[in-house]
Structures are given as structure tokens and as C-alpha cells.
Design brief:
single chain; Arc Repressor Mutant, subunit A; Beta-Lactamase; 20% strand; disordered N terminus; DNA-binding
């Protein structure tokens, strides 16, 4: 299998997992059958069968050049999806962006990756642009540290093995309540993150502020941790039962 299938969560249902591998590969960029096989590592006949099947269900479509691209049914399904954490975050992120003047994001852990589920960018200036849906490995960056610090022990052991951070660093993050990084995920980018908790107090996401090191400094937590923690608390309050969105 290709890179996408190696990092995507596996359900154990072969045809479903392969279909998701095809969808993820085509989501990166439209492609023909040869390119699809290169991206997924699937045999030509299997890749063709799955892509045509997904096209029948309008999850994929083909352009005039014969390349598959994400189909209209994906947007129709997404429009009806209800994500309370994302919806709560979108009510809070504008204020955090206004306070910091930097890019702000919310990440959720999915297996060995973290996925951006909400993001907002400052209107002008150099920024750390992270589109919604972007996936990063759980090996570096302040959001990865936060999500790892409050992960289940069995999951934590697996994450620490390949990461730039240690058990000791994560214990310190738990004690302090937030994490920071400088140049870990990307050269020249600094970030600070805090845990987002649900109504029961479980950590369900990480909220982050990120931007150029030249502007944020190598210890961005000293500047933005308090505002970040306040934003995380505001999201948690919106996740309480009966709280208006």
C-alpha cells in the first residue's frame, strides 16, 4: 500500500479500508488510474473497480480528461454532519484570532495523526496556514503534545516511540496545562496549544495558536497561554448540555 493507506485508520473490513484509501488519494489531487495505483499501491484491477464503484455512488466524479476527483455526494454528506466540538470552536476562534493576530486551529487525534477540524487565519501578514482537513503525524508540534499528554496509556506508549517528545515532557505539559513548540512541525513556525475538554472533562481536541517564530518567539506560551486556556474553557462551556451554539 502507499503512504495514505499506511497512516489511515484501519477498520479490518478490507473493501471499506481500500475504498477509503482511494478516496483519500483522490482528495489529494485529481488522478487517472495509473496515478491512483501509484498513490495507493493497489493492483490496477482493484483500484479501477473501487473507483468506478465510488463514482456510481457519486462519491467520486470524472472530469473531461478522465481524472477522478471528489464527487458531489461527499459535500452533501458533509453538510448534514454534526460536530459539536467544531461548531463550538467556530464560535470561539474569531475572538482568539483577534486577540493574538495569529493563525488559530483546533485539532482532533485520529489514530497516529492529528486532523485540523477548524481554523481561522489573520486577514493580513505572514501566517501559518493550515486548511481544515489537514493531517499531521502525532510526532511533533504543540497540538500533538497536548493530544498525546491526555491519551490513553496504551496509545501514549505507541505515540512516544516515534515522537520528538518524551514521557517526562508530557507529564510536565499535564502539570502546566498547555504545550509550546518552535520549529518542530515546520521550520520557522512556533505554536502553543491547550486541551479542549467535553462536558465530562475528557480531552477531545487541542486548540492552537501558530505563526512565525520571528513574531511569536521561541516561547510563545509566555505570551498566549492564558488567552488560549480561556478559549479552551469557552469551548467546553459551549459543549455543556443545553448551552446554545
Amino acid at each position: 500500500m502507499g503512504k495514505d493507506s499506511a497512516t489511515a485508520p484501519a477498520s479490518g473490513i478490507g473493501v471499506l479500508d481500500k475504498s477509503m484509501t482511494v478516496l483519500r488519494a483522490i482528495a489529494d489531487a485529481p488522478c487517472n488510474l495509473t496515478e491512483l495505483c501509484e498513490r495507493t499501491g493497489l493492483p490496477r484491477a482493484t483500484a479501477h473497480r473501487l473507483a468506478v464503484g465510488l463514482e456510481t455512488h457519486r462519491l467520486l466524479a470524472r472530469n473531461a480528461a478522465g481524472r477522478w476527483y471528489p464527487g458531489p455526494a461527499l459535500g452533501e454528506l458533509a453538510s448534514s454532519a454534526h460536530d459539536p466540538v467544531r461548531e463550538a470552536a467556530l464560535m470561539v476562534l474569531p475572538r482568539l484570532r483577534e486577540i493574538t493576530g495569529e493563525s488559530v486551529q483546533v485539532y482532533r487525534r485520529e489514530g497516529s495523526e492529528r486532523v485540523c477540524i477548524a481554523a481561522m487565519e489573520p486577514p493580513t501578514g505572514l501566517r501559518d496556514t493550515v486548511p481544515v482537513g489537514t493531517r499531521f503525524p502525532m510526532t511533533a508540534g504543540s497540538a500533538a503534545k497536548v493530544l498525546a499528554a491526555w491519551a490513553e496509556p496504551s496509545i501514549l506508549r505507541a505515540l512516544v516511540t516515534d515522537s520528538v517528545f518524551s514521557d517526562r515532557a508530557l507529564h510536565e505539559i499535564q502539570r502546566r496545562g498547555w504545550a509550546q513548540s518552535a520549529g518542530e512541525r515546520a521550520a520557522g513556525v512556533a505554536s502553543v496549544s491547550a486541551p479542549v475538554r467535553d462536558a465530562g472533562g475528557d480531552v477531545v481536541a487541542a486548540i492552537s495558536v501558530s505563526g512565525p517564530i520571528d513574531r511569536m518567539g521561541r516561547r510563545p506560551g509566555a505570551r498566549w497561554a492564558a488567552d488560549l486556556l480561556a478559549a479552551a474553557e469557552a469551548i467546553q462551556k459551549r459543549l455543556q448540555p443545553g448551552t446554545p451554539g
